[in-house]
């Protein structure tokens, strides 16, 4: 199983590589992600239903994260500091259990940002990028 974006992203592996080994698109999301799979028994995986319900109820800046990437801690601390100094409501949700992972509202590598209920990015934020999101 391999998730990818329809448009190549620098942080995702090249889809042509897995396709040469027989992987096929078995599911998609409205925001451009595809699930590729190579079935040995005829079964096909699917994105969890939550992944296709992109808007979330929470309107404040909401970040889902795990600690797989060594840069996550630094980004979290920078965002917390910025939000505290600028009175920006912030919700940080660490994805640290299987149940939380199954309930994610988006395709998730290890970081996902929502603002005003809308999925914004899976890219780590710097202050400039954060300000751009908050202006929306």
Automatic annotation (TrEMBL):
Top-level taxonomic group: Bacteria
Pfam families with a match to the protein in the record: YoaP (PF14268)
Positions of the YoaP-like domain: 89-131
InterPro entries (alphabetical): YoaP-like_dom
Name by which UniProt lists this protein: YoaP-like domain-containing protein
Species of provenance: Budvicia aquatica
């Amino acid at each position: 199983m391999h998730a990818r974006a329809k448009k190549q992203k620098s942080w995702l592996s090249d889809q042509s590589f897995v396709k040469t080994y027989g992987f096929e698109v078995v599911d998609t999301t409205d925001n451009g992600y595809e699930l590729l799979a190579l079935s040995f028994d005829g079964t096909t995986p699917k994105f969890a239903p939550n992944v296709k319900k992109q808007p979330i109820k929470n309107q404040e800046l909401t970040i889902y994260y795990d600690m797989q990437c060594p840069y996550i801690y630094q980004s979290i601390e920078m965002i917390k500091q910025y939000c505290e100094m600028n009175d920006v409501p912030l919700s940080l949700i660490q994805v640290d259990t299987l149940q939380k992972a199954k309930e994610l509202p988006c395709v998730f590598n290890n970081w996902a940002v929502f603002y005003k209920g809308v999925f914004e990015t899976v890219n780590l934020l710097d202050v400039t990028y954060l300000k751009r999101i908050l202006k929306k």
